[in-house]
TrEMBL record:
Gene3D superfamilies: 1.50.10.10. SUPFAM superfamilies: Six-hairpin glycosidases (SSF48208). This is AGE family epimerase/isomerase. The lineage of its organism: Bacteria, Pseudomonadati, Pseudomonadota, Gammaproteobacteria, Pseudomonadales. One of its GO terms (biological process) is carbohydrate metabolic process. Keywords: Isomerase. It holds the Pfam family GlcNAc_2-epim. InterPro entries: 6-hairpin_glycosidase_sf, 6hp_glycosidase-like_sf, AGE/CE. Belongs to the N-acylglucosamine 2-epimerase family. It comes from the Bacteria. GO terms for molecular function: isomerase activity.
């Protein structure tokens, strides 16, 4: 399954396009540096000012640590200090010293729960920091892996459990597609950094359940919400359709994200001689096709709608920046895997949309949310807190499908 060579005129091979990607990545990094505060990293408003009222947030600290570790591996000055700050705060004020694991913020409340989603990002951040050779990263990774293995990974279900109370009591009966998708992302990174292929077996088990079984039966858009027996909850959050992490219905953006992850998983397993089912690449192409057919411009305007219902009608028509970041990365991955010119066309169309609508040339970064007419909005994602999605979109098209991001950059830098 060696990836095919893109056409000579593919944007993926053009030096000017790669230079443009690098410039966009550096611009995103510069904007994100303002998120650093005393105890971690905070959300940023649309002008790039930290929102101090909420304090340091663990999800932002983990994503920033991961992203700046990638930048450190690229040789971007100032990035190492940002990684080290993230490591210190994840080991300090954001960690639950009594019960283990991580609080959601530096200002924890008793009712908050320990989420698999957040802990997967802590593990991802730690693995990237280890690849970058930063001090303290190995200890953080050991802690993060221990929490994932002892608390969240369920051997019987071959998936990650969703959440617990602060003291690890009261396991949630809900099972989440989103948290397990990011669990797969973490598994890919851990397999490389820990040199342990059990993480690839776990990623395959999750992917088979969520994509080859459930998404295949649902028009190849991922099913997001399940009960404790992994039965779909079709009406989940019907009254809160625009939830930030658990929206009602189906999410075309996640089909793009899953398509890319399946190709990374296939390439990672192939690279070390593990067997691969043929459906990995087939399902990746079906996911991408479904996301384009059911998510792109389905309401008459360019862009990807946030959610659709079970009759494949738009529910939340806002355009979120992360869906375009994942779409462009998925198109690049599929073009690398297949050399099909259709994916090159999509890759160009997605970047043209990002350039026209999402890049904020006045204040920096990307608008995180647009309304149905592609005007800046902020009902779901106010401000510009997220570096991770857009920055990865500038890196993934320039790298092979395997190994995972940080390890690939480390090898380019001669560190791995």
């Amino acid at each position: 399954m060696e990836p095919l060579t893109p056409a000579a005129n593919s944007w993926l091979t053009l030096p000017a396009h790669r230079h443009w990607l690098a410039l966009q990545g550096q611009r995103l990094l510069e904007f994100a540096k303002a998120a650093r505060i005393e105890n971690g990293f905070a959300d940023l408003d649309h002008r790039g000012r930290p929102l101090l009222s909420s304090g340091a947030l663990t999800i932002q600290t983990a994503r920033m640590t991961h992203s700046f570790a990638l930048a450190c591996l690229q040789g971007i000055p100032g990035s190492a200090a940002m990684v080290d700050h993230g490591i210190r705060t994840l080991q300090g004020p954001l960690r639950d010293a009594r019960n283990g694991g991580w609080h959601a913020s530096e200002k924890p409340v008793a009712a908050e729960r320990k989420q698999a989603y957040l802990h997967a990002f802590v593990a991802l951040a730690a693995s990237s920091a280890v690849a970058a050779g930063r001090p303290g990263a190995t200890a953080l990774l050991t802690d993060a892996v221990d929490v994932l293995e002892r608390r969240f990974w369920c051997e019987e279900e071959q998936a990650f459990l969703e959440s617990f109370a602060q003291d690890w009591s009261d396991p949630e009966s809900y099972r989440g597609g989103n948290s397990n998708m990011h669990g797969v992302e973490a598994c890919l990174a851990l397999a490389d950094v820990c040199n342990d292929d059990k993480w690839l077996d776990r990623a395959l088990a999750i992917s088979e359940r969520l994509i080859h079984h459930h998404a295949a039966a649902a028009s190849y858009l991922p099913v997001e919400h399940f009960d404790a027996c992994w039965q779909p909850l079709a009406d989940y959050n019907h009254e809160r359709p625009a939830d930030e992490f658990r929206p009602y219905g189906q999410t075309p953006g996640h089909a793009f994200e899953w398509a890319r992850l399946l190709l990374h998983l296939e390439a990672a397993r192939h690279r070390i001689g593990l067997t691969n089912p043929s459906w990995l690449a087939d399902d990746a192409q079906r996911l991408f096709a479904a996301a384009c057919d059911l998510g792109w411009a389905v309401d008459g305007q360019p862009g990807i709608v946030y959610t659709i219902d079970w009759q494949q009608r738009p529910v939340v028509a806002q355009r979120l920046h992360w869906t375009l970041a994942e779409a462009v990365a998925a198109a690049a991955a599929l073009h690398q895997r297949t050399a099909d010119a259709a994916y090159e066309r999509w890759y160009r169309e997605f970047w043209d949309y990002i350039d026209l609508y999402l890049i904020d040339r006045e204040h920096g970064s990307w608008y995180h949310e647009l309304d149905a007419r592609n005007r800046p909005a902020g009902t779901i994602w106010p401000g510009k807190p997220d570096l991770y999605h857009a920055y990865q979109a500038t890196l993934l098209p320039t790298l092979p499908l395997a190994p995972s991001l940080a390890t690939a950059l480390a090898r380019q830098a001669g560190l791995g």
